[in-house]
Design goal:
InterPro entries: C-type_lectin-like, C-type_lectin-like/link_sf, C-type_lectin/snaclec_domain, C-type_lectin_CS, CTDL_fold, Methyltransf_FA, VWF/SSPO/ZAN-like_Cys-rich_dom. This is Putative macrophage mannose receptor 1-like. Pfam families: C8 (PF08742), Lectin_C (PF00059), Methyltransf_FA (PF12248). The chain has 342 residues and is mainly beta. 12% of the residues lie in helices and 32% in strands. A hairpin with an 8-residue loop joins strand 18 and strand 19.
């Protein structure tokens, strides 16, 4: 752990790249989690990991959930505490609106999720049964459009990814050679550790993923997906080093790679090689009913799909514990109510 002689734990891989001790000399640990919602123990840890990533180091992307905190919430009867909130699983299967109304009648709300640890806690509380989450489709969500020149220069999206976000959707119109990168740093050269995804190499016959721009492919697949006159929709998931790239229309998995040394993804870049390409990157498609920040997701690959343009509500435990899916609000599912503890 950071600031100790223990070489195991969430920061173990970073020690080989950068000593942590200059970062924690004057650090006052904040184990009680006074920073809102994240339970960070001090800003020095964040700066250390930033330096580690810039030097190519690897660390546990879920390290915050493993930092101890001081005290759980006190809950009323029927609710179970987890950190500063209280949760109640309701096995009755009802529509989304009925579930939301039931929670609100108790002064609570349908559960919202802000971390991987909370996601698994809620999944376990619900005994892995499919159940509602307190989010609905953001009907005002839009996309950012870009034209990419036919050169070898990556354009980075302007916004750094929020920790906990592990998926995005994009569309591209290109004859061939549409490149994406997922990186922990803006300073990129041919040997910088990153995930580079190439769609439509070898005259739109080859798709591949590699660990740096100069590296050999880790996985590849031969099938044409790009079109020179039409936009094609794709998804990318990247939770805990598991990279999944797929065809959105058919929810077909194109590439999948499990990195033994996961890297946190902070930046997304794109470029078109040989021919000019057109790109669209889509905003978050859902929003919490409580209007709190959307800073975590865990969609199953190919989701949210908005089947028949009618899937406006969100569920968890879809096909596998903790995986999210959009679904029809009129379906009936179990649910979890959440309320602040005292």
């Amino acid at each position: 752990m950071l600031g100790t002689s223990n070489t195991e734990g969430s920061f173990a891989y970073c020690h080989a790249y950068k000593s942590p001790f200059s970062f924690i000399t004057s650090c006052i640990f904040d184990l009680c989690g006074t920073l809102p919602s994240t339970d960070l123990f001090c800003s020095s840890a964040v700066q250390y990991l930033k330096t580690c990533a810039e030097k190519g180091g690897i660390f546990d992307a879920d390290w915050e959930s493993k930092v101890k905190y001081c005290g759980d919430a006190v809950c009323t009867d029927g609710y179970t505490n987890y950190k500063q909130s209280c949760y109640k699983f309701v096995p009755d299967r009802v529509t989304y609106k009925a579930a939301r109304d039931t929670c609100e009648a108790e002064g609570a709300h349908l559960v919202t999720i802000s971390s991987r640890a909370e996601n698994m806690f809620v999944s376990d509380l619900g005994e892995s049964e499919r159940m509602w989450l307190g989010a609905t489709r953001n009907t005002s969500a839009t996309f950012s459009a870009y034209e990419s020149a036919a050169d070898d220069t990556y354009t980075l999206l302007p916004d750094r990814l929020t920790r906990g976000i592990g998926s995005f959707r994009f569309s591209v119109r290109s004859h061939s050679e549409a490149h994406l990168l997922l990186s922990s740093t803006k300073d990129i050269d041919d040997n910088t550790p990153l995930y580079e995804i190439v769609l439509g190499a070898d005259r739109n016959k080859l798709n591949l993923l590699r660990r740096c721009q100069a590296c050999s492919p880790r996985v590849e697949q031969r099938k044409p997906y790009l079109h020179k006159r039409r936009f094609r929709d794709f998804f990318v998931n990247f939770h805990e080093g598991k990279i999944q790239v797929g065809d959105m229309k058919n929810r077909e998995l194109i590439l999948e790679y499990k990195d033994p040394l996961p890297m946190r993804v902070r930046y997304i870049g794109f470029k078109s090689v040989s021919r000019v390409g057109s790109w669209k990157f889509y905003e978050t498609e859902f929003m919490w009913d409580t209007e709190e920040s959307w800073n975590f997701d865990n969609f199953r690959y190919g989701e949210p799909s908005n089947y028949e343009s009618e899937e406006r509500c969100l569920e968890t435990n879809f096909l596998h514990p903790g995986l999210w899916n959009d679904h029809f609000c009129s379906e009936k599912k179990a649910f979890v109510c959440e309320i602040d503890g005292y």
